[in-house]
Predict the structure.
Amino acid sequence: MSISFYIKNKKGLIGYEKPMKVWQCLEVPGYDVDQFSFDEDAEDFNEKKFLKSSIADYDSLSLGRYLITSRGFELSFDKELNQYSVRLATPSTKEDWGRALYYIEKLAEKMDSDITNERGEHFTVESIRKYDCEEDILSGLRLCLERYNDGFITFGHIREVALNKELIEGFLASEKPVKAFSKFYRDVQWKYLDACPAEQRFFGHKETGEVKGVYALYQNEKTILPFKPFVELKNIEVTTNEEVKFWEIALFFSDGDPDDSDSYSFAGEMKYSDFIEKLPKEKYKFIDALYIVVKKLKKREILALLKE
């Protein structure tokens, strides 16, 4: 679910101007905009080449502001229609909307164009400031409640966020629903940057072909794990929930410097369900409908989990 706003490209002396370069897109609002489509710390990321490339070279770019927006917005350029599109996922946070609407306003001002959206509504640079984003957030939450009674996954800047009926009803029942939802989503994105999201690994039995899903947990490392494991969306092309016959978690401890990866030793492996059952409740808390953050565990605590 989403909503898109459209801004026609600026006309030049002959036809329309060329689509903006990425660096121009990032400067539209007059303050720094962060992109979340590419990992700028990756070895193969060429910042100069990226900034000099055209927005038209990409299907879309995910934009926002570090530590402020949670889902941000997508910017794209349609070559055939010669127009820019700013798309927001539904529901997005109040901060996402604030930054997106200001971006739309400044982009329309730069292109000397009015604004339309997929609902056929028309806006000027002045009237877009009055757009009722809170009603969009609330209607989005209500729609999610109707469509996804069993829960669903949404995408944020940093990590996926799982929502369910209980959480959404809690937002809607609060004194300030939009504020409650926005804070919750922002916390999931930015409050746990010191926690390591555990990666899923899959192994197939040579003879039976059965697939085993495995997580890893290390001593003295705050870790984000699912309360009940499932094949995450990024791995659905690798395997499926039906193919994974059992889940386990591998535990590691260190006898030396915790910052030295060579100091860790394999403590053992256990069923994931047993791990959750034996993990003391004061050692973890839910961050959304599916995921928990596990506090740093000492060596003795890790070894205690493995005891029969």
